[in-house]
Write a structure and sequence with these properties.
- By secondary structure, this protein is mainly beta.
- The protein is 0% helix and 58% strand.
- It is built from no helices and twelve strands.
- The strands form two sheets. The protein has a seven-stranded antiparallel beta sheet with strand order 1-2-3-6-7-12-9, with no helix packed on it. Strands 4-5-8-11-10 form a five-stranded antiparallel beta sheet, with no helix packed on it.
- The radius of gyration is 13 Å and the shape is globular.
Length: 110
Amino acid sequence: KILSNTPSLQAVRDERTGITYMIFWKAGSYENISVSDACILIAKETENGYKIAFSDPTQKLKKATVKIAKSLKLATHDQFATVEQTEQTTVITYDLTLSPGRTLECEFLR
């Protein structure tokens, strides 16, 4: 299912698997997720929670941030990711200096 097809964001959701694929061509937001820079995000809703995968295909960013307008309980995260939570938000900051082009993942519980 096509969710967005604009010059700044292309997003699709596979209803069968529950995976949403988002290509942000610049900083922006979609639903409850906002990003600081152009990136690729893959979000999967599971029985137990959510998995978020982030990638910088340009391999030029040093740092990037993903903000989710929902407080999520952290299960696991990539060693190059820092997660901060408040009552209303979850902020993931990715340090990309040692991992250019690599996909970084975080998993959250409901």
